[in-house]
Amino acid sequence: MLHKLLEALKEHDIALVKRILEKMPELALVARVVVEAGKLAYQKGLVVLHRNGCDLNATYRGYRPLHALIQERPHKEKQKDKRLATRLRQLCMRWMLDHGADPELSGAFPPARAILVAAFTGESGYVDVLLERGVHMDFFSNSALGDVDAVRKALQQDPSLATARDQGGLTALQCAGYSGMGRRNRETAARLLEIARLLADHGADIHARTKSWSRDLPVSYYVVNGGNKDIFAMLLERGMNPTEAIGSTVWKGLRDWTELAIKHGGSINEARDEGKPLLNQMIRWGQLDQASWLLSMGADPNITDDRGWTALHQAAARGNARIIKALFDAGADRERKTVDGELPYLLTHRKEIRRLLL
Question: What pLDDT was estimated at residue 58?
Answer without folding.
Answer: 98
